[in-house]
Amino acid sequence: MSFNTISVIGLGYIGLPTAAVFASRKQQVIGVDVDSHAVETINRGDIHIVEPELDIVVHAAVHEGYLRATTEPEPADAFLVAVPTPFVQDETDDTHKADLSYIRAASLAIAPVLKRGDLVVLESTSPVGATEEMAAWMAEARPDLSFPQTHGEASDIRIAHCPERVLPGHVIRELVENDRVIGGMTPKCSERAVELYRLIVHGDCIVTTARTAEMAKLTENAFRDVNIAFANELSTICHKLEISVWELIALANRHPRVNILQPGAGVGGHCISVDPWFIVDSCPEEARLIKTARLVNDHKPQWVLDRIKDQLDRLHQQQPERPRAALKVACLGIAFKPDIDDLRESPALGIATQVAQLGCTVQIVEPHIEDLPANLQAANCQLVTLDEALAQADVVAVLVRHSAFSDSVGKLLTHSAVVDAVGLLDA
Ligand code: SAJ
Q1: What pLDDT sits at residue 228?
Q2: Above 90 in pLDDT, residue 214?
Q3: From the CB of 167, is ligand 1 less than 6 Å away?
Q4: SS3 letters across the chain
Q5: Residue 201 in this model has a pLDDT that exceeds 80
Q6: Which residues are catalytic?
């Protein structure tokens, strides 16, 4: 059975590319978002987020009449929920709970337009049990329809979890090529969801339960977080032991069964630094390693800041007559990872902000943005070119390993005060 209309709820970094890719397969897609600015932008054929190739796909989909956006849900045969699931941090007991309020709001928004035979898929990365909660919210709002939690295979509405797994910067390609884990609340729910994803996915669609699919996504990101934490911990150990961590990792990785990731300025973005907390929150007694990895990675920006302070203190001792404000620190990169312009949850941005609070003059080199974010502008930071920074800065902090910096490694090697958080100089 085909789908006449597919609706995507939440037109952000995952929802909009997903909607556009379905539309590019000549499916009728209705995108829904509470943000009327985003809706208007999309309906003009433009995009409100940055992702390579997305502009072309959205422009074509809208102008060919396959994609339109609205703020109010409309009837459809399949609903894909791709809304944020941030965490709420309790500062007093250091717990991090998933905030499911966006999923709840989306469930209640689509409930009135649901009809018998519809499929609802939760794509948002969620703690184990969230798909069942979503089903319960919809069932409460629509007592006239039957749902899998009470009616199993006989239910009117099919519900599944199919976590998004695409890498920012490669979303359009990975949406099509990656395998998908599809966890239905019943086997028939999975079957219907596979029919939907088969319309766009060239990878395998692997069927499991909703709870296992939820945990699979969290596990992938926790695995990466733990492995990055190992690299970050090595970097601080090696600093103390006066060993190059970059050389060390390159040597260790020559072992056929060792593959250590790269240390950096910390772990940023909306995914890897968030999702492991959902496991920790569900199983605080058991998830000891996962929690420690989070703490190790969250501490890394402070450690990098301390290395910058060491350099400033050294300069101050050498030139006590120069006031702090006369000392220039250049921060190379403020994006959350290399070769993108995304500043969300960026450890490098956090470090630059804290350097500005030290009272020195801060220059930012970020080849992927036109303007500095408001907080750095307010702190009188300047957006400069790499050459300007290298000519003027007393301390250079390499915070993101953008490809654009590679050509200047020679100049950086001759600078007397470089804090290299990402191993640019050891390439
Ligand atoms: N990082 C390091 N060292 C490394 C690799 C990464 O410090 O060796 C840092 C990056 O600089 C960045 C952070 O980790 O600050 C995260 O970057 P990333 O490239 O590892 O991952 P994301 O957050 O862009 O995307 C991840 C992906 N998950 C996995 O690779 C397991 C992606 O497939 C998911 O879809 C995405 O999370 C998501 O939406 O959950």
Answers
A1: 98
A2: yes
A3: yes
A4: CCCCEEEEECCCCCHHHHHHHHHHCCCEEEEECCCHHHHHHHHCCCCCCCCCCHHHHHHHHHHCCCEEEECCCCCCCEEEECCCCCEEEECCCCEEEECCHHHHHHHHHHHHHCCCCCEEEECCCCCCCHHHHHHHHHHHHCCCCCCHHHHHHHCCCEEEECCCCCCCCCHHHHHHHCCEEEEECCHHHHHHHHHHHCCCCCCCEEEEEHHHHHHHHHHHHHHHHHHHHHHHHHHHHHHHHCCCHHHHHHHHCCCCCCCCCCCCCCCCCCCCCCHHHHHHHHCCCCCHHHHHHHHHHHHHHHHHHHHHHHHHHHHHHHCCCCCHHHCEEEEECCCCCCCCCCCCCCHHHHHHHHHHCCCCEEEEECCCCCCCCHHHHHCCCEECCHHHHHHHCCEEEECCCCHHHHHHHHHHHCCCCEEECCCHHHC
A5: yes
A6: 217, 271
Q: Whose CA is nearest to atom 29 of ligand 1?
A: 221
pLDDT at position 247 is 97
Q: What is the pTM of this model?
A: 0.94
Q: What is the mean pLDDT of residues 323-347?
A: 93
Residue 91 has pLDDT above 80, yes or no: no
CA of 325 to the centre of ligand 1 (A): 36
The percent of residues in the chain predicted with pLDDT above 70, rounded, is 100
Q: What is the pLDDT of residues 136-150, one digit of tens each?
A: 999 999 999 999 999
| Residue nearest atom 35 of ligand 1, based on CA coordinates | 165
Ligand 1 centroid – CA 225 distance (Å): 8
For the chain, list the domains and their CATH numbers.
5-203 (3.40.50.720), 222-426 (3.40.50.720)
Q: Is 337 near ligand 1, meaning CB less than 6 Å away?
A: yes
Evaluate: CB of 269 within 6 angstroms of ligand 1: yes
Q: Is the C-beta atom of 267 inside 6 A of ligand 1?
A: yes
pLDDT of the residue at 411 = 86
Tell me if 184 sits within 8 A of 210, measured CB to CB: yes
pLDDT at 95 over 90: no
Answer yes or no: is pLDDT of 230 > 90: yes
